[in-house]
From TrEMBL:
Belongs to the inositol phosphokinase (IPK) family. The gene is itpkca. Keywords: ATP-binding, Kinase, Nucleotide-binding, Transferase. This is Kinase. One of its GO terms (biological process) is phosphatidylinositol phosphate biosynthetic process.
């Protein structure tokens, strides 16, 4: 995997603070993603550490009906020795925004990762440590002996521990306008727990929920007709939710490092349950559930 080639340290919400725009240096934001992967570019742009697979996706997305639902892509720039994909900073037009990352889909690893794990298993100690930190009982006897787990096993465990397996999406983390960050959602699994997390993010503001719901329904309509979406396995991709005190809301698709095109003439419906070989990712099933959960947070009219 191109993306895994980077020695990534995952820390969604502990990544460096980055100035929002050159014009407003007093405003700061935290960027979702692997630490050190992002920089602020000039004129409301964001630089994300280069990944060729992701670049290819952005190039195709710029020609697809999904274009309004992803950050505009502006090509590759170099900073020092490192290349970056340059895209719009989605927070630029918000005023002290609150942001949330929801990872979409019922599966968070690619089928090709599963094949590699079988052919060349490389158990990881860091993932073992992350696993026991959440649940000391989770590792098998063998994993305990090795003090290591396979990445695919770790990812599957994370999926069933959270709402990924049961609802097709999970809350990864959010930051409220006051700077308060919440990232402790590994065990947020039931509908009720998800509602609690979402309600905390929107601070019980139903106007914000309405705004998100409208946008997600538009996104679903566009996804159902999108050529790009039909022809790609979309794994580990997130929806970025942004709102501010003016009531402005936005949702965009981000993170295409693990989005891969299908062989010619193959398509996905993104709702059929996954069985190895069918490459379904459960993205639309997850979006259906997310829309349903949000709709149920609104008062009955
Ligand atoms: C990480 C999370 C990321 C994954 C990363 C995991 O686990 O599943 O999505 O990166 O793998 O460590 P957690 O959220 O529990 O910290 P990819 O999606 O890019 O595979 P990595 O450690 O190999 O980067």
């Amino acid at each position: 995997m191109q993306n895994s080639a980077w020695k990534k340290q995952k820390s969604c919400w502990t990544s460096p603070l980055i100035p929002m725009t050159p014009k407003k240096p007093q405003q700061w934001l935290q960027v979702v993603g692997h630490a050190g992967s992002f920089h602020v570019g000039d004129y409301g742009t964001l630089l994300k550490r280069f990944c060729e697979g992701e670049q290819q996706c952005y190039l195709r997305l710029m020609e697809d009906t999904l274009r309004p639902f992803v950050p505009a892509y502006h090509g590759v720039v170099q900073r020092g020795e490192q290349d970056y994909n340059m895209m719009d900073n989605l927070l630029t037009h918000f005023n002290t925004p609150a942001i949330m990352d929801c990872k979409m889909g019922s599966r968070t690893y690619l089928e090709e990762e599963l094949v590699v794990a079988r052919e060349r298993p490389q158990p990881r100690n860091d993932m073992y440590e992350k696993m026991v930190a959440v649940d000391p009982e989770a590792p098998t006897v063998q994993e305990r002996a090795q003090q290591a787990v396979l990445k695919t096993r770790y990812m599957q465990w994370r999926e069933t521990l959270s709402s990924t397996a049961s609802l097709g999406f999970r809350v990864e983390g959010f930051r409220k306008a006051n700077g308060e960050c919440q990232t402790n959602f590994k065990r947020t699994k039931s509908r009720e727990q998800v509602v609690e997390a979402l309600d905390s993010f929107v601070e019980s503001n139903t106007n914000i929920v309405w705004g998100y719901l409208r946008r997600l329904k538009q996104l679903r309509q566009v996804l159902e007709a999108s050529h790009f979406f039909r022809t790609h396995e979309v794994v580990g991709s997130s929806l970025l939710f942004v709102h501010d005190w003016t009531g402005k809301t936005g949702v965009w698709m981000i993170d295409f490092g693990k989005t891969v095109s299908l062989p010619p003439h193959r398509t996905l419906d993104h709702r059929t349950p996954w069985a190895e070989g069918n490459r379904e990712d459960g993205y639309l099933w997850g979006l259906d559930n997310l829309i349903d959960v949000l709709a149920n947070m609104l008062p009955l009219t």
